[in-house]
Amino acid sequence: MANNREHERAALRLQLNYRDATGGNFLFEYSTNISRGGIFIETRHPLPQGASIVVRFQPPGTDEELEVEGEVAWVNPWVDEGDNPNPGMGIQFLNLDEERRMTIASIVKAIAILPEV
Length: 117
What we know:
The protein has 117 residues and is mostly beta strands.
């Protein structure tokens, strides 16, 4: 299978909140990986591909919460009684200002250079 990713991913299990960008309540889920271009949210109830989304999370080693806009780039749906070990949605970050872009890049870089335990 070809890897068409523009940015290298780094494994990151992180609690986060997200909601459809049109409003509503934030939902609690976890990420499984992050890149400079996006994040994967593990969920049994993904939003549809193309949906605008707002994601909030606290980067490791910080006290401040980061809020970013994104779009659902792809969906791996939950399959009842099926073999689906990784249900969720891939989020492409949108409209990142320089500060948010640098924060996300530093998260990915820090994870990438950490030695495996």
